[in-house]
Predict the 3D structure of the following.
Amino acid sequence: MLLAIPDVLSKEQVASFRATLDGATWVDGRATAGHQSARAKHNVQLAEDDPLSGRLGAVVLDALDRNPLFVSAALPRRVFPPLFNRYAEGQAFGVHVDNAIRVVKGAGVRLRTDLSATLFLSDPEEYDGGELSIEGGFGLQQVKLPAGHMVLYPASSLHRVEPVARGARLASFFWIQSMVRDDADRAVLFDLDQSIQRLAPEHPSAIALTGVYHNLLRRWADV
């Protein structure tokens, strides 16, 4: 399932992030790449242990906790501390697949990457190129969202960031370990949850379908 989630961050939050990142110290983006993907990765990012990354990441995590669409789609068990990257002119990230397991630096916590997320911090008109191209059962999708919007997609997908031809592309990226490992199962639960929410709470079908939802979640959840 590929899902665009609007307004994860407000315009004011995006502006604050951008002002803060203008003075950031960037490092080679290959620091968090696997052996194969490091060959295709050409960008810069904040170091994982940079205090600025931690402060901005905490804001993102708080926003995700309060976003019902994200919670419904991801059913998060753990979220990797958000990272931040920048693609300038000529930079790109070739076709790759994300590592199945990530280790939170300094915490020793291992996280299975069921879902990948990109939270855009630059508006589309600020740069040419830089689309996030994702391949999967839904075909090739090219994603370039407004600042503050996020795309959520299976971490098992082949994907790439197209070369930036003008301007700069700023984003936050991270991974989610879901309570429900299988993407197809998560998609069923998401569709069911969204259908329930469209019904009046007192509708008899809403009560019955809520029971079905929780019985399926009980069957599939790994907590």
Q: What stands out?
A: DSSP finds five helices and 17 strands in the chain. Helices lie at 11-21, 51-65, 68-74, 183-197, 204-220.
